[in-house]
């Protein structure tokens, strides 16, 4: 008589429930270990986006200053104009500050125009840059 029973000690029928539970436990432990790295990565991505928006705002303002009429009077009026605070895509409010050095005593000459972008919630300076602007006349 030939039964189709396996010989004693041979059981190749797949994974047992205990092995599956152990594998799930190991995967869960690895996942928990990686969560802090994921949180730091998301925060760093947000910070980079805010800095990129500040840099874009600064560059745009400097480009606009170079496009003004090449007179000290026009550039002074431009520097005195206010720029509305910009709210970045992550809800961070950015404030643009600008300053103009004294006009040159003789023309043609150059004047330094400085732009700084500050976070309004923390007061942290995110970006700052200066440019020398060529002026042909006082008015």
Characterization of this structure:
By secondary structure, this protein is of the alpha+beta class. It has one domain (17-135). It is 42% helix and 23% strand. The chain is built from 2 helices and 4 strands. It has helices spanning 17-66, 72-80, and strands spanning 86-87, 93-100, 109-119, 125-135. A 4-stranded antiparallel beta sheet has the order 1-2-3-4. A hairpin with a 5-residue loop joins strand 1 (86-87) and strand 2 (93-100). The longest helix has 50 residues, at 17-66. The radius of gyration is 32 Å and the shape is rod-shaped. The N and C termini lie far apart (116 Å). The mean pLDDT is 89.
Main attributes of the structure:
single chain, 139 residues, alpha+beta, 2 helices, 4 strands
List the helices and strands and how they pair.
Layout: H1 17-66, H2 72-80, E1 86-87, E2 93-100, E3 109-119, E4 125-135
Antiparallel strand pairs: 1-2, 2-3, 3-4
The secondary-structure class comes to: alpha+beta
* Number of distinct helices: 2
Q: Going across the major beta sheet, what is the strand order?
A: 1-2-3-4
Q: What is the percentage of strand-forming residues?
A: 15-25%
Question: What is this entry, summarized?
Answer:
The chain has two helices and four strands. By secondary structure, the chain is an alpha+beta fold. It is rod-shaped, with a radius of gyration of 32 Å.
């Amino acid at each position: 008589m030939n039964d189709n029973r396996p010989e004693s000690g041979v059981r190749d029928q797949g994974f047992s429930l205990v092995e599956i539970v152990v594998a799930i436990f190991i995967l869960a432990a690895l996942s928990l270990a990686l969560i802090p790295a994921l949180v730091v990565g998301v925060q760093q991505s947000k910070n980079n986006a805010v800095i990129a928006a500040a840099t874009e705002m600064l560059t745009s303002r400097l480009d606009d200053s170079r496009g003004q009429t090449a007179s000290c009077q026009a550039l002074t009026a431009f520097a005195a104009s206010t720029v509305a605070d910009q709210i970045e895509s992550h809800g961070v409010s950015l404030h643009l500050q600008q300053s103009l050095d004294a006009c040159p005593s003789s023309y043609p000459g150059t004047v330094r125009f400085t732009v700084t972008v500050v976070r309004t919630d923390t007061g942290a300076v995110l970006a700052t840059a200066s440019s020398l602007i060529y002026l042909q006349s006082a008015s």
